[in-house]
Design brief:
This protein is an all-alpha fold and 74 residues long. It is built from 3 helices and no strands.
Length: 74
């Protein structure tokens, strides 16, 4: 058995699947990368962070907070 990995646009999945089936591929496993976000999602996340910052809902990285946060790796 040989395994191939492709990175393609979601709109191209059905086309690639059809081609692979036409070539006689028996098992096709589609795995979506959930870590990627759209441009709109990215900018919405930035806007949310800026709004929270303006509302004072932030944590400043003081030396004390930094020590507490990273005590297990420092």
């Amino acid at each position: 058995m040989t395994t191939f990995s492709f990175e393609i646009e979601p709109s191209e999945v059905s086309k690639l699947k059809a081609v692979l089936k036409a070539l006689g591929v028996k098992k096709i496993k589609i795995q979506e990368d959930k870590t990627e976000m759209s441009k709109e999602e990215f900018y919405a996340k930035i806007d949310k962070s800026l709004k929270e910052s303006e509302e004072g809902k932030i944590h400043k990285l003081t030396p004390e907070f930094k020590k507490e946060l990273f005590k297990s790796v420092l």
